[in-house]
Amino acid sequence: MARRYFRLVCIGLILLLSGGLVLGQSAESSTEEYLTLDQLLSRTDAVLQWDPAANHGVLRTPRLTLGFFADMPWITLDYTEYQRAAPVRVDDGELLFPESYLGLLQNAGRDVDMGTVADGRRVAAIFIDPGHGGRDPGAIGKHTVDGSLFEIYEKDIVLDVGVNLYNLLRQSYPDRRVAISRLDDTYLRLEERTNMANEMVLADNEVVLFVSLHANASLNTRATGFEVWYLSPEVSRGELISRRSTEIDDPDLISILNTLRDEELTIESILLARSVLDGLHGRVGSITPNRGMKMESWYVVRNAKMPSVLVELGFVTNTDEAVRLSRSAYLHKLTMGIYTGIHQFINDFEE
Ligand SMILES: [Zn+2]
After folding, report:
1. Residue 225 CA, ligand 1 centroid: distance in Å
2. From ligand 1's centre to the CA of 130, what distance in Å?
3. Which of 36, 68, 86, 317 sits CB 3.0–4.6 Å from 98 for a disulfide?
């Protein structure tokens, strides 16, 4: 659904963009310096979402969403403004970005004013959700180590980290509510998990953090590393458009306010994701790759009405990583990484 509306937005933008070109502002030959994606990302805190089929991409920071079509001399800012700019190029399948985008992405304020984001609210509760459990093992790794078969289940890895994180947070924050979806090997439906978390929402000025824990599997057995996901804003934008199209003569103020709230949650989710990713990087970044922040409309994350992140701790399908993930010392490092990230987020948020 969301994807369909995203496409409609894209088509709308294409019409808008071609309209601009017809008005006579043709692309001039550019003397612009270009950066590779890695260069751009290393000098900003942006993440890229790229849809090769639509030739459309979005660079997103906690403060700015910059939309572009490859080879089109226009960009959109926060979905609302559009302005003339040097085009993104595609060279041999690789995206190249005009150096001038750096300024746009950085000048939107490299340091987020968390005080503005928080607006007097405090983190009153933290909900930890170890994925899977019981009859749902999650991802399974099967390896031969030193001549014997070795099996590892995602549900066990995330329970170990989840319970330790839960205990650590309870000790550190006796004045906040800390809850966990499961303390043992039980099966829970996704709705049960989000309902438990949503029930923790208290007063208006209180925020609940939702941290879902998972482990990865890949057909590529060489894949390793950790990553952190957060809610994709396209989901809430899609909802906004659908409401508008059905209620165009009777704009529903509440639905629009809800959507603004969704956008705010997205920013908080991005900041929490960044903080948790940095925390993990500090603890295990020298051992396994940092695969960065990703955005997705994960069911479990989407239905939680709070800043939400999903942490992928590592790949059970890689032998070396599976062995690491079976060792409590390594799981402790991962736990400390996530804890540090949550702790940092709370400090910044309540500064
Ligand atoms: Zn999982």
Report:
1. 15
2. 9
3. 86
Can you name the CATH fold of 114-349?
Answer: Aminopeptidase (3.40.630)
Per the CB < 8 A criterion, the answer to whether 121 and 102 are in contact is: no
Distance, CA 73 to ligand 1 centroid (Å)? 41
- Say if residues 97 and 40 touch (Cβ distance below 8 Å): yes
Nearest to 133 by CA among 218, 223, 215, 221: 215
Domain coordinates in residue numbering, the chain = 2-107, 114-349
- Determine the angle formed by the axes of helices 253-284 and 328-349, rounding to 10 degrees: 130
Rounded to the nearest angstrom, the distance between the alpha carbon of 179 and the centre of ligand 1 is: 19
Give the pLDDT score at 42.
81
For 2-107, give the CATH class: alpha beta
* pLDDT at site 283: 97
DSSP state at residue 133: B
Rounded to the nearest angstrom, the distance between the alpha carbon of 251 and the centre of ligand 1 is 39
- Between the CA of 192 and the centroid of ligand 1 the distance, in Å, is 16
Q: What is the DSSP string of 306-349?
A: S-EEEEEEEETTSHHHHHHHT-HHHHHHHHHHHHHHHHHHHHHH
Strand 206-216 and strand 226-231: the pairing is unpaired
